Amino acid sequence: MNIAFFSTLPFEQTWFDQYRSHHRLTYIDQPLTLDTARLAMGHRAVCAFVNDDLSRPVIETLNGLGVSVVGMRCVGIDNVDLITLNNLGMTLLHVPGYSPHSVAEQAVALLLGLIRHVPDAHQRVLRGDFRIDGLTGTDLHGKTVGVMGTGHIGQAFARIMQGFGCKLLAYDIQPDRSLLDRGVHYMALPELLRVADVVSLHCPLTPLTENLINDQTLSLMKPSAWLVNTGRGKLVKTRAVLDALDNNRLAGYAADVYEQERAFFHYDFSDQFIDDPLLNRLRSHPKVLLSAHQGFLTEEALRQIARSLMNQFNFYENQQTSLLSKASMC
Ligand code: NAI
Asked: Are residues 76 and 137 in the same domain?
C-alpha cells in the first residue's frame, strides 16, 4: 500500500522504515493542510501527526484523491473530524496506550525542572556562575498531587508521584479500580483543585475539557500550587495561567503543549520573529518551563508507535483484500 506521511520529522523515518514491510512510504515534511492534501495523490493511505489538519475539507479532499485510510501516529485525535471520516466510509487507525511512561516521565521532568530551577542552574554553570542563591526549591515528598485524567498516562504519572512520597488525588469521569486499590483518592474537580499542591493534566481534549483550566478554576487553586500540562494546549486558557502567575495566584506552570502550537512546535524559528504575543509571553515567563510537544519522544515510544501503526496498516490491507476476493467470488 502507498502511504503518505505528513509532518515527518527526520528521526521518525528510521523507525517507520524498520517496520514498513512491503508498504511504500512517502515522507513529506510539510504538515497536512488543505493546501498540501493534494500531495497524497497516488496514495491509498495517509499517516498524520498531532498538529496536522484533519478537518472536514481536508478529509473530503483526501477522499476525493482515493485515500481510504488515515493512520494517526499519536494518542490524541482531537484534530480529526471523526464524523466526516465516518460519513465517507474511511477508516481511522491510531495508537492508544503506546509507552505511557514517555509522557508521564516528561511531565515529571518538567515538574522537577520547574520546582528545582534546573534550567536556571544549568545556565549559571554554563556561564561559570556557581552561586546558588535564588535557586531554593521545594520537596515533592509529602506534597498532595492531583491528577486529572487517570488513563494510561495519568496512571503512570500517579505511580511515579507515589514513589516520590506524595499523596495522590484524582479526577476522572471513569475512576480506575487499580488506582483506588493503591490508595488514590478520587474527588470532584473543584475539591481537588482547592487542596492539591501539584495539578497535572492527562485527559483528552474534548468539548468538555477545552479550557477546563481558566480564570474561575485557577481561582480555586492554592497560590503555592504548580500546574503541569502534557495533555493538550487547549485544556488550559494560557492567558489566564499567565495572569495568575503574574499576580502570584499560581506558583508555576510546566507544559509540553500550547494552545496555538500548530504553527510553531516542531519547526525552527530561532532566526525569525515569533509573531505570537501569547507564546512569547509564555516562553519568556520566569515561572514557566515549556517544551515543544516532545512527551512522546523516547526510543521506546517511537518504536511502539511505528510497530503498532504499521501492523494496523497491514491488518487493514489484508482485510480489504479478503473483502475484495469474497466479493469477486459472489
Ligand atoms: P487515555 O484515554 O488512556 O486516558 C484519558 C483519561 O481521561 C481516561 O481515563 C478518561 O476517562 C479521562 N477523561 C476523559 N474525559 C474526561 C473529562 N471530561 N474529565 C476527566 N477525565 C476525563 O489517554 P492517555 O493515553 O492517558 O493520554 C491522555 C492524553 O495525553 C491524550 O488524549 C493526549 O491529549 C495527551 N498526550 C500527549 C502527548 C505528548 O507528547 N505531550 C503524547 C500522548 C498523549
From this structure: no
